[in-house]
């Protein structure tokens, strides 16, 4: 049982070590937006130091590797939110009649401005961003210290939610700007064109921006700096792969050595026990051999207990 217990501990240690190495090899930026939303939800809720209903709180801190992203949050009562809406909520104008599903007593509206990280977390092939990606998400306000909360669904019943993109970048001549919305899975849906006044409309929560089609241009040779950068990234990727492979092989070799040592220790203990038994047999008293019929049998010269008749014992 001790051997099996030791083997289980060794396998557990090895698996945890490999999982840690694999996690360290993953890139910081994920192609999926859900982990980003969960992280920004945590930092948005931290702005509620002394929360008051209906007050907009700007998040003062964001992760160091996401510097530039702007966050804000507002706690509301679901009934008041449906009757009055919120106008303005940063660039968003939320009318009355918005339904929250599933129903909660209080909710938190979270605002995101991804700034220069827009193209990283929401890449669009064939399009260029002329405005940052803005996020409007809703969460249950029951526990303001909770993390990894599921998103609530916002659905308009009358007028749509409007997003004001007044500070657009210069749109190339001949290009037409379009509104784009990303759902919780990161899938994009486009409008035909942007509304007058550089506004977009939506009936749900999500992430929104304004894009134009990329201008086709002849490919130019990559400068030496880009080649070096690509070569450097390729070598870093190869080195990470070799680190993982080497860790796996090294772990298996280490496990084999440990198993070998355990087996050797068990065999050594068995052999040592046999030697002790042999030494005990050699140092014991030698018995005289006596012929009994056709068989030789050991006999003792004396006995420890003298024979006694049963009649004598009874007397």
UniProtKB/TrEMBL annotation:
Q: Which domain of life is it from?
A: Eukaryota
* Annotated spans, Disordered: 215-236, 273-315
Pfam families, alphabetized: DUF1191
InterPro entries (UniProt xref): DUF1191 (IPR010605)
The leader peptide range reads: 1-23
- What UniProt keywords are attached to this protein's entry? Membrane, Signal, Transmembrane, Transmembrane helix
Ranges of Low complexity composition bias in the record: 295-305
Q: For this UniProt entry, which segments traverse the membrane?
A: 242-263
Cite the record's Basic and acidic residues compositional bias ranges. 273-282
Which GO cellular component terms are attached?
Answer: membrane
Q: What is this protein called?
A: Malectin-like domain-containing protein
């Amino acid at each position: 049982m001790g051997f099996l217990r030791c083997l289980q501990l060794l396998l557990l240690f090895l698996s945890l070590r490999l999982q840690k190495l694999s996690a360290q090899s993953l890139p910081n930026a994920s192609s999926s937006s859900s982990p980003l939303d969960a992280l920004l939800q945590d930092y948005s809720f931290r702005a509620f130091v002394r929360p008051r209903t209906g007050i907009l709180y700007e998040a003062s801190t964001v992760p160091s590797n996401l510097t530039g992203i702007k966050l804000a949050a507002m706690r509301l009562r679901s009934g008041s939110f449906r009757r009055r809406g919120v106008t303005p909520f940063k660039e968003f104008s939320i009318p009355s009649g918005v339904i929250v599903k599933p129903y909660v007593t209080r909710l938190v509206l979270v605002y995101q401005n991804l700034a220069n990280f827009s193209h990283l977390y929401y890449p669009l092939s064939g399009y260029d961003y002329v405005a940052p990606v803005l996020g409007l998400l809703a969460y249950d306000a029951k526990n303001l210290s909770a993390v990894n909360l599921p998103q609530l669904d916002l659905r308009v019943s009358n007028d749509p939610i409007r997003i004001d993109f007044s500070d657009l970048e210069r749109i190339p001549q001949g290009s037409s700007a379009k509104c784009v919305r990303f759902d919780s899975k990161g899938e994009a849906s486009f409008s035909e064109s942007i509304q007058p006044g550089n506004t977009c409309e939506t009936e749900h929560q999500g992430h929104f921006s304004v894009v134009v089609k990329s201008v086709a241009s002849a490919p130019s040779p990559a400068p030496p700096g880009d080649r070096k950068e690509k070569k450097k990234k390729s070598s870093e990727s190869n080195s990470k792969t070799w680190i993982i492979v080497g860790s796996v092989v090294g772990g298996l070799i280490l496990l084999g050595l440990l198993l070998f040592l355990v087996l050797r220790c068990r065999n050594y203990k068995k052999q040592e026990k046999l030697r002790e038994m042999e030494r005990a047999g050699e140092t014991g008293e030698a018995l005289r051999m006596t012929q009994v019929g056709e068989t030789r049998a050991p006999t003792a010269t004396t006995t420890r207990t003298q024979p006694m008749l049963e009649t004598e014992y009874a007397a």
